[in-house]
Amino acid sequence: MMKCKFYIFLTIITFFSLCRVNAQDDLLSELSEDDEIYPVKSTFKGTRLINGHTIETRGAGNLDFLIMHRFGRLNSGIDEFFGLDQAVIRLALDYGITDDLSIGIGRSSSPKYLDGYIKYSFLKQTPGKIPVSATIISSAALDINIREEQPPAEDRLSYATGILIARKFNSAFSFQIAPYWLHRNVVEYNEENEAFALNLATRVKITKRMAITAEYFVRLNDSAFPENTNNAFGVGWELETGGHVFQLIFTNNLGMVENTIIPGTVNDFFSGDIHFGFNISRAFNLKRNKDEKSW
Amino acid sequence: MKWLYLFILFTSISISIQGQKYAERNGEVHFYSKAPVEDIEAHSEKGQSIVDIGSNRIAFEVPIRSFQFEKDLMQEHFNENYMESDKYPKASFSGSFSGFDINASGKQNVTASGEIYIHGVKEKWNAEGVMYVKNGKIHLETTFFVPLETFDIEKPKVLFYNIADKIEVNLNFIYDEM
């Protein structure tokens, strides 16, 4: 009896010790037990996709110099050199106060506008936890076109607020949906002050540094907008080289801030009223991550 | 009585086979690229490692996303374009080491050999380092060079960055008993 018990014990002990020998073959899997999950990065490459904003904000201390340039309509004929004779430009500076909070100012030519915005990223897509990223943006635009009788500044102001929601489905495909609320202080008699629109935007990466983009603003209450205006649409080609992002775009409007894009699109993309244009951004690091460098 | 005696004997044998494990959860990992135009360095404090003194085995891993760079844009490019951290979130090593005696004092030269895994590529790997015991903790310091080509890590062709062919990696781990 004693001997029998002893052999059972021997077997069990041997079994356990073998198990343990096996277990140590896989030290790596022991390490993987409590892995940290990181939020998704680079849903879009730039803070703008074509004309509109993306959920991206610049990191703390980063200054982006942005040149947005639009030519005239491609179908304006050889006399206008297919639109290249005409040029509208917006120069802008974007600055990251924190990793999630950005501010920016810009000036557009023809029509002349001064604009400013504040943008805050409040939700980060995290695998297994949060399905989407979200950012809120609020911008103001001041019409500074020279007129004989210049109305007071408050009559030339308009505001836009949008909630941008995006998901990076995989490393190549990102999609954004964003409801916008526009308020224009003064509008024509047959328009409304409050206007609503939905922005749909996508980016498809074709190589590590190249992507195809598309953007559409669907207007929700058409009666609020000027007559004979359309939904804004654009497609683009995005190229990244080092500190630059180049975006070559084809769009049906000349607006470069929400309040000129959404109510101010007079052209129809599919009738050939297409403007060629580009955005170039150059990032400067004003604040190096010095605290990190204590090592 | 005999079985109790044998029980203790086998248990101790099994413990000695199992060895003793020491773990590091916040290990420092630095890397340096020394090139004429620009030195680039990054660090992480998320290196994780286990050493098993009984069986002389070691494993180590670090999340690619945990590396901090001086410039945000570099960090973005590192993750997005070069290491593709979406696809390959971790770098790791697993293998055995020799030359370490936990009872000896002073710095001891050790060698490790096993498999390293970076950017989806697995390679046979040998490294040298120093191990010593201080205040009941095992210290490990090692430096090795990672050739980018071996691990299919693209070298940027544009002028903006100038990256060395071989990246110097330093590990500085302090292990507690598990």
UniProtKB/TrEMBL annotation, chain B:
Pfam families: YceI (PF04264). It comes from Mangrovivirga halotolerans. Transmembrane segments: none annotated. Residues 52-173 form the Lipid/polyisoprenoid-binding YceI-like domain. This is YceI family protein. InterPro entries: Lipid/polyisoprenoid-bd_YceI, TTHA0802/YceI-like_sf. It comes from the Bacteria. SUPFAM superfamilies: YceI-like (SSF101874).
